[in-house]
Amino acid sequence: MTLIRRDLLERGFSLGALTLLTGCDLSDSNAVQSVLAKFSAWNDRVQAALFSPDRLAPTFPESDAVKDFRYNAWYGREQAPSLDAADYRLLLSGRIADKRPWTVEQLHALPQETQITRHVCVEGWSMIGKWTGTPLRIFLQRVGADLTARYVGFECADGYYEGIDMPTALHPQTLMAFKLADEILPREHGYPFKLRIPTKLGFKNPKFVTTIYVTDKEPRGYWPDRGYNWFSGS
Ligand SMILES: Nc1nc2c(c(=O)[nH]1)N[C@H]1C(S)=C(S)[C@@H](COP(=O)(O)O)O[C@H]1N2
Ligand SMILES: [Mo]
After folding, report:
1. Residue 156 CA: which ligand 1 atom is closest?
2. What's the confidence (pLDDT) of residue 125?
3. Does residue 33 sit in the same domain as residue 66?
4. Percentage of the chain with pLDDT > 90?
5. Is the shortest distance between the CB of 125 and ligand 1 below 6 Å?
6. C-alpha–C-alpha distance, residues 149 and 147, integer Å
7. Less packed terminus of the chain by CB within 10 Å, N or C?
C-alpha cells in the first residue's frame, strides 16, 4: 500500500485498477481508510476513468466469505423493497432486440457461476461475499443487446438507478447475482437480483433491479447525482 503514490490517486485510478496494480488486500486497515478518504474527493469524470476489460478483480477462498452480509442503502433494512416472484418482471429497453420482460423463473434458468469477491463501500467498510448468478454479458447476448452501444443502465424498485460502461458490462466478473452465500438473494440484498461488479465500488452494484437498458447516453446514478461520495451511515 505504501507504494501507492498520492499523485497516482489524484490522477484518478479506479479502485479496481488500484487493487490490481498493488495487489493490496483491501481490508479495513488505516491505509484503506485513507485511500477511501481519497475516493471521496473524486468527481464523475474520475469515476468513469481507467478500466481494463481483461484484468480480474481478486477472488478469495470460500472460507473468507461472510455469511451474514452487511446491509446498506440510504434507508433502513425493513424498508427494503419486497418483490414477489409472482408479479416481478425484468423490463428491457433501449438498444435491445428482444425486449420481452423476464420472470424470475426465466432468469433462474440462465447459466450461472459463482464468485467470491470483495465488496468495497465508499463509507469505509468492505466485506468478502459469495455471489452466484449469470454473467451480464451472457444475458445481454441472449436478448440481442447492441454490444457496440456505450452504456448499460439500471433502474431499481426502490428508486435507485445506476449505469456502467459497456466494457464493464461485458467484463467476465460482472454478474446478475441471484444468490448470496448459496441462498436465494435475501430481500434486503436485492431480490430477485443485484448487479455484482467487483471491479467497481459498492454503490455501482444496484439491487432490486427492475429495468435494464442499453444506451449511448451516459446513465445517471443515484449517488453520482448527489456528489456520490457522501453517505450518512445507514
Ligand atoms: N437499489 C439499490 N441498490 C444499491 C443501494 C441502494 O440503496 N439501493 N446501495 C448501494 C450501496 S452504497 C452499497 S454499499 C450496496 C450494499 O449492498 P448490500 O446491502 O447487499 O450490502 O448496494 C448498492 N446498491
Ligand atoms: Mo456503498
Report:
1. 1
2. 92
3. no
4. 69
5. no
6. 5
7. C
